[in-house]
Fold each of these.
Amino acid sequence: MSKPPLKICVVTGSRAEYGLLLPLMKALQKDRSTQLQIVVSGMHLSPEFGLTWRQIEADGFAIDKKVDMLLSGDTDVAISKSTGLGLIGMADAYAALKPDWVVLLGDRFEAFAAAIAAHLAKIPVAHLHGGELTEGATDDAFRHAITKLAYLHFTSTETYRRRVIQLGEEPERVFTVGALGLDTVKQVKLLSKKQLEAALGIKFAAQTFFITYHPVTLEWGTASVQMQNLLEALDQFPEATLIFSYPNADAGGRVIIRLIDEYVQKNADRSRAFASLGSVKYLSALQHVTAVIGNSSSGIIEAPFFKVPTINIGDRQNGRIKPVSVIDTATDTKSIKAGILKAHTKAFIEKCNDMQQPYGNGTAVPVIIREIKKCGRRDSIKKPFYDLPQ
């Protein structure tokens, strides 16, 4: 008699996270020995961020549960309350679905709530992208907390694998697989520049920038000033085409969205803003722009795959391993402008073309599925604390 399929529940709370999880979800959907379950929460269910749960269904997936947890405010109090609502909703979702495994990626408060609920329900968690650092964001602590709540770990570099082990996780449960986003890059059929221009409704110029700026959530009230400085720097490049992507649903995010909308309205001939582009258009944009600007992890992980320079602004990504294509700048207008100028020099472009990608080669998915299946159904999520050798 054949065994029932292993029920693997993938939780996603944001458009960016879903884009990374997409190849894993497709592989689980095709695998007859696994049953894919999908729980959608956070930004996916918000009209403000594009109701991106619709894209998940358009991609051919059935959503098993929706956990509506995102309050309309973007204050620290609202984020704390949203996390609490997420914990309640995830507990109900797991009770109904009874998954054998929960898969979580990264470090956001939605994933943190999902990890707590899974731990309390005694469901093992497979965590992707642990061990990384983003010292300017509250996400940094969430990520390490999820590591301690997880049973299996799949890291993007060997350095991050060692850090997860340093947090007390047994080496045999920690695997270096590379960045999951590179699996997506290798699998999707990207749009040509002409197709992308038609899809976005804008013409690419000799210089075309993709801009994503998130609040630095461990700083007090800096989002407005920093975004204004960035926009002033962009004013110094009046011939450039500008493509903006809204920030995540974090404390301070709304002021950034307002400033973007006002700027695009004043510069409608050369700029567009999007709540969500979806994986194909987003990755196609990374392929065709001349620079990525902001403080998103995508500029450090996915953009280098396309040999595109990244101007990484401020402290949000401090501690993350950065390819040579990344130019770190301060948050003032002068520094940002200098970074953009450097990114477009012949010497730096040649440097980008010759660099090595530190985040793997897009083969993470089969290893992740293999190791989860090897663990199978767990009678217990007990685990010892692994002490580093003296």
Amino acid sequence: MDEPTSQDSATDKALRLIDYLLALAALRSTITREIEDYQGVLWLHEIPYENGCFSQAWGPNEELGSDVWVEIKKHDEPILQDVPKLCEQ
């Protein structure tokens, strides 16, 4: 019978460490089975059909690759004018 080599022993230790870390991570996380339990849900039909918004569910876009499913561009805020003198007080 072959005796275990140090390579087999190191591999076995590494596998047991990975199993332990996976089990430890599972203890700290909760399984979410209901979509209502998520903190935030983005429905594709709620994305507005406006300039700067895109969803792959609407159909392909030549400007974006097929790996982009949702894109929402942030617009710069408009520069506000000074407050009129009448309203300063």
Amino acid sequence: MAYFAQLDESNIVTNVLVVPDDQVHRGQEFLANDLGLGGTWIETSDTGAIRYNYAAIGYTYDQTADAFIPPKPDEGWTLNTSTYTWEES
């Protein structure tokens, strides 16, 4: 099984669903078309093995970095672009 995050038009995660092993290779098509959910779906990993962080609702997907980024905790925090996590400045 694999996890896929649904993105809105601003690349914000709105949903995370599990895809069966036999459909992982076509996760986007399986979720959007076969299940009729539409939208854009990007694979995520609960171990952080891909895209740096496990996607959760409210996270942002950065296409350039190919990373899921959690919401910024506070104005005084800085994004560490090696881990795509926030650190206190």
